[in-house]
Structure formats: C-alpha cells, structure tokens
Amino acid sequence: MREVSRSKSQTSYTSLCAACKIQKKKCSQKCVLAPYFPHTNPQKFLLVHKVFGNGHVTKLLQDLPAEKRGDAVSSMVYEASQRIRDPVHGCLGIINDLQNKVAELQSQLASTQAELANVSLQLAYNHKGSDPNYVPARHKKE
Hints:
single chain, mainly alpha, two-stranded antiparallel sheet, 60% helix
C-alpha cells in the first residue's frame, strides 16, 4: 500500500491497480480499471493490454453500466488469451471447432437412430413372421 495525499488535511491509503502500476501512472479513486485488474494479478492486465490496448479497455468499461463491467472484463481476458494462443482465429477458432463437433455428433445420432429403426423393424418382422399387415405398435399411424 502507498499513501496518497489529496490535500494537506485529507489522506487515504490505496494500492495501485495492475494497469496503473504497469503504466507507471497514479491510480486514482476513480480508476475504472482498479476493481478488475488488482495489483496482485498484473498478468491479467498485461494480457488484455497486449491484445486490446489500454485506451480501448478503459473506453469500453467507461461506456458500460457498472453491473456489466465484470462480465466484459472476463470476456476480454478470455478473448485475449485465445488470441495469444491462436493469433489468426482467436475465440472464433474454438467456436468453429465446437460447431463442427456438434454437426458430426448430430450426424452420428441420425445414423444411429436410422440403424435402430431398421433393427426394430427386422425384429418385429422376425417376430411376427412374414405377415405383411403387421406394424409394430410404435410405428402404427393413428
């Protein structure tokens, strides 16, 4: 902690936020970054700063209502970490991978359901012999 003087009669104690500490600025009571980038976790700010820049982060947070800022910072930290990991695609690469997996699983499910329907019909046919009028209860039209 460091001592900050506002006037000769008024003194308060505050710690630098990671953003101000890294940029070697004075951290004011009104610092919009302080609640989200504590001095104990400078890597969090460095990551976001490297991808988005201090000005963009500050402006974005100032333009948001206070109750949405925490979520915005979490999103920026995640996006920045993915952008560092995959500079070309970032989060979009993960989204595309997941969408491809979902499509593959949906295809496998449809194939398995069709196979199950065929096996069910074969069992029903074998059970009732060659009666062409027999329709399993699940497949009867009402």
